[in-house]
Design a protein that fits this description.
The complex is a heterodimer of chains A (108) and B (183). Chain A has helices at residues 3-23, 27-55, 62-95. Chain A has 108 residues and is an all-alpha fold. The mean pLDDT of chain A is 89. The chains are: A mainly alpha (108), B mainly alpha (183).
């Protein structure tokens, strides 16, 4: 297995997530696309950790460091989903809509 | 050797198809990419959430392929077990249109597609040009005990910060989502 195949897969997933964030109007679906992007980033972190460990140029435990970063990303993503959905729920309660292009109260 | 610049970037030979692990990788990658494309294009919100499960399951399989078993288990527990359920609750509460016609997307798709393709070209092109066919190596799988000692020795302060972030998110979620008792 080469490092590049993981990086290309991750780049593809990230780009698909970018596309989803840009075209979706529904806030819940935008958050779903962000999750796809975060999954891509996690693959990158773990693959680089494994790669750098196996080059032998770094201390032992580099692969574990990459995986710990991935775990931190998962944790922060869980927090982000909780807060994000709470905000979406609040917006829905006030505006009866979660379409992001209708939320123009701050537009001057 | 990683940074051997004399070799040409092997764009055509990203992987050696004689290795069975690469076939496993290909199957997982096709499932993940197809699932994520459905996530961003389907008109049904529930289908999007379910296809996110396929994508994240593929991510867990990739982590096992990379010897990251604990991360794979965490992805299954946290993402597939909790986050997707939370999304389904969000869909239920906000009454997102199920199967509505075009209401979920903006009308201008081409600028977004162009941005996504450009992002992919830059990311994939630069990484492949730099790393070429550098082998990722096949070290032993990282044991959960190594991850534990790494978290609680080297990364103990980020760990505490992240736990504080989770606490703040918990309180913030409760404060945001509950109705005001009066007023």
């Amino acid at each position: 297995m080469t490092l590049s195949q993981f990086l290309v897969l991750s780049a593809g997933l990230f780009s698909i997530g970018v596309y989803g964030v840009l075209i979706r109007r529904n806030a819940v679906l935008i958050l779903l696309s962000v999750e796809v992007m975060l999954a891509a980033v996690n693959i990158n972190l773990v693959a680089f950790g494994q790669y750098l460990e196996n080059t032998g140029r770094f201390a032992e435990g580099t692969a574990a460091s990459g995986q710990v970063f991935a775990l931190f990303v998962i944790t922060v993503a869980a927090a982000e989903v909780g807060i994000g959905l709470a905000i979406v729920l609040l917006i829905f309660r006030n505006r009866s809509s979660v379409n992001v292009d209708e939320l123009d109260a701050l537009k001057w | 050797m990683a940074y051997d610049r004399s070799r040409p970037p092997a764009i055509g030979i990203l992987m050696d198809l004689g290795d069975i692990r690469n076939w496993v990788f290909l199957v997982i990658a096709v499932v993940m990419l197809a699932g994520s494309i459905v996530v961003v294009t389907t008109r049904n919100v529930v289908h999007a959430a379910l296809m996110l499960v396929a994508t994240l399951g593929g991510a867990a399989a990739i982590f096992i392929l990379l010897g990251a078993e604990f991360v794979a288990a965490t992805v299954v527990l946290v993402y597939i077990g909790a986050v997707v359920v939370l999304f389904l609750f969000g869909v239920m509460i906000t009454r997102a249109p199920l199967g509505g016609q075009g209401a979920l997307d903006h009308s201008r798709k081409w600028p977004a597609a162009l941005t996504a393709i450009a992002t992919f070209a830059v990311l994939a092109g630069s990484t492949v040009a730099f790393f070429g066919d550098a082998e990722i190596g096949s070290g032993d799988p990282v044991l959960t005990s190594e991850i534990g000692s790494s978290i609680f020795n080297r990364f103990v302060i980020p760990f505490e910060v992240v736990s504080f972030v989770l606490l703040a998110a918990l309180i913030g979620g409760i404060v945001l989502a509950r109705r005001d008792p009066e007023a």
